């Protein structure tokens, strides 16, 4: 045993000289956990003040969280993040608790008992019996009354619907007084419009040309109509060109005459002077 202890001590000394910083961190982190027993831990947990006594957001509460998480991490930044996360979690829980709407208490509906329902049914039966008797009396009085409805006297129009074998319904309108015949039935039937005729072939036309405003029957007739229209347009254009040419010629002749008369007047003035 002595030899083993001495060897362990020598090994620790060698490690301490070679890796002083890492060994110290390891000893500080492991030795407190190894030295503490489950019994001592339970005693410390019992003696620790409850969290509910600490006020949320106070400095004492932050110190308690730091002391609790000191064995999990040695870095101070990790402890600060843990404190911030704990605060955020509690704030979210408080918001959720305040956002919950209180449940509305449902009013209890009154349900009648079997005896009450039977009593109500008996009253309803008596009321219905009385109403039936009154209705029968009214019907009996109508049967005993010999008076009849006055009949209509005068011209009438009757509509009779009858089914045909082809599962269609035909309506027949009959007039009792022929002298008072409606003017609607006295009108002469409208004649059908005359069929359009092709402007080239003189056959029945199926199509209409909006440019020439003429009906045509086929594509060949359409081409002929367009050629006629283009020929008319060329003639109209040629006549306009001839008119413009005549106007220009007349203007030039008039201008030449004016120049000649001006030159003659100038020569006569020189000769006379």
Q: How would you explain this protein's 3D organization?
A:
The chain is flat. 59% of the residues lie in helices and 7% in strands. It is mainly α and 273 residues long. The strands form two sheets. Strands 1-2 form a two-stranded antiparallel ribbon. A two-stranded antiparallel ribbon has the order 3-4. The chain has helices at residues 2-18, 20-35, 38-47, 59-68, 76-99, 114-144, 219-272, and strands at 157-163, 169-175, 207-209, 214-216.
Average predicted confidence as pLDDT: 76
How many individual β-strands? 4
Beta-strand share of residues: 5-15%
Instruction: Report the C-alpha radius of gyration, rounded.
Output: 61 Å
Topology as a string of helices (H) and strands (E):
HHHHHHEEEEH
Task: Please work out how many helical segments DSSP would assign.
Answer: 7
Helix proportion range: 55-70%
> Structural class of the secondary structure composition?
mainly alpha
Question: Per the principal axes of the C-alpha atoms, what is the gross shape?
Answer: flat
Spatial order of the strands forming the largest sheet: 1-2
Poorly predicted runs are 30-57
Q: Report the biggest beta sheet as strand number plus sense, adding barrel if it closes.
A: 2 strands, antiparallel
End-to-end separation? 166 Å
